Amino acid sequence: MLSIEQITPELTWRLRRDVLYPDQKLFEMEMDEDTYGTHFGVFKDVKLAGVVSLFQNGTDFQFRKLAIDLSLQKMGIGNRLLQYITDYAQENGGTRIWCNARVTAIGFYMKAGFSETGELFSKNGFDYKIVEKVI
Predict the structure, then answer these.
(1) The CATH number of domain 2-98 is 3.40.630.30
(2) How far is it, in rounded angstroms, from Cα 41 to Cα 72?
(3) Angstrom distance (rounded) from CA 122 to CA 12
(4) Which of 61, 91, 110, 114 could be bridged to 131 by S-S, CB 3.0 to 4.6 A?
């Protein structure tokens, strides 16, 4: 059974590191802007299976650091979490939800109804494109 709850930023750090930045230290996962975000965890039974951080700027919602436990990927958990935050953004006045998507994850976002915008860019050794969805 899956459940999605709002969590503290600190609870996102281990999955952020394990999935997205396995060579970094846990304390390096904290972002200055974590204080201003809303953080969500998806739980499979009682295990934290996925995390994401959501940041509002007017009617724009940016999500960052979407990470699903490596052993639980390809089971629809990421889709459920993405739909949850999209609904949350819409319920809170959002008209657009977007992220800087790793190029390796573009297909996941396209299947979820997102569109690519802008050019390819690199940051910290990863290639990204902005993807967005009008809500």
Answers:
(1) yes
(2) 14
(3) 23
(4) 114
pLDDT in tens, 46-58: 999 999 999 999 9
* Tokens linked to 135: 């809500």
Question: In the chain, what are the domain boundaries?
Answer: 2-98
Q: What is the 3-state secondary structure (H, E, C) of the chain?
A: CEEEEEECHHHHHHHHHHHHCCCCCHHHHCCHHHHHCEEEEEEECCEEEEEEEEEEECCEEEEEEEEECHHHCCCCHHHHHHHHHHHHHHHCCCCEEEEEEEHHHHHHHHHCCCEEEEEEEEECCEEEEEEEEEC
Contact (Cβ atoms closer than 8 angstroms) between residue 15 and residue 48: yes
User: What's the pTM value of the predicted model, to 2 decimals?
Assistant: 0.94
Q: Do 11 and 51 form a contact (C-beta atoms < 8 A)?
A: yes
**Alpha-carbon distance 36 to 51, whole Å?**
16
